[in-house]
């Protein structure tokens, strides 16, 4: 692919971390995301009303932001990883304080490790009488997680998603982790982005929630998204407001695609419709070839 610009020599600026919530079923991933979403910019701007677009941003009093992927669970993470999408910077590992470490807790740990993504532990349900956070810490440590209070570098925060306790501590821990990682992105030049969710709407056609990793996505640009292509007709922010541009770590909905992409697909900007068509056709051919090969096996 001929890129319009390269990253070489471009100025890099700090960007918000992109965070995924993982953990065992029923340990409170959805509840935690709900609680965090309530603290988000969108919730504040829209008077508490938020729409589900696959990601949301929390802005801290310091002005720093955190982008949360709004799909809990390991399937989404694995699907994205399988497509080579390095979309997540940090994993929040949710462990219920009463239940402790369970099979999917370990699975999440190994996913994060394989992807080389640091973990911040959220011990949830600390409001419960049966909560035993100290036991959870020992369990995690015995599974090889090097917790900060034991001399390692994995932060642990105690929270209650339903009682909304410790959310600010969790957000601060994520920011600290992000500072340590010195996450930076090129702002100028064509965007590189990833799809986190895609749907078809009768009126709007196929649309995708995407997170820009570098550069700036601009309305009107020709794009290839996975094996699909299109010209960006509209960019909307978290509250559905039309915007001209999307910058790094900002989740947006993009409209104008000719087909439905998949979570984890990459978004690249090309210079013309012709190139977009060509690239898309090539990628479709390759997908079909891979599919036939699989069927043949
Ligand atoms: P998920 O499967 O990991 O997404 O878990 P959910 O968010 O669906 O939560 C599972 C159950 O645990 C629900 O009944 C929640 O109300 C409950 N739950 C979640 N967080 C807390 C918490 O902090 N305290 C208590 N007491 N219950 C919680």
UniProtKB/TrEMBL annotation:
Residues 14-184 form the Tr-type G domain. It is found in: Mitochondrion. One of the essential components for the initiation of protein synthesis. Protects formylmethionyl-tRNA from spontaneous hydrolysis and promotes its binding to the 30S ribosomal subunits. Also involved in the hydrolysis of GTP during the formation of the 70S ribosomal complex. Belongs to the TRAFAC class translation factor GTPase superfamily. Classic translation factor GTPase family. IF-2 subfamily. This is Translation initiation factor IF-2, mitochondrial. It comes from Nepenthes gracilis. The lineage of its organism: Eukaryota, Viridiplantae, Streptophyta, Embryophyta, Tracheophyta.
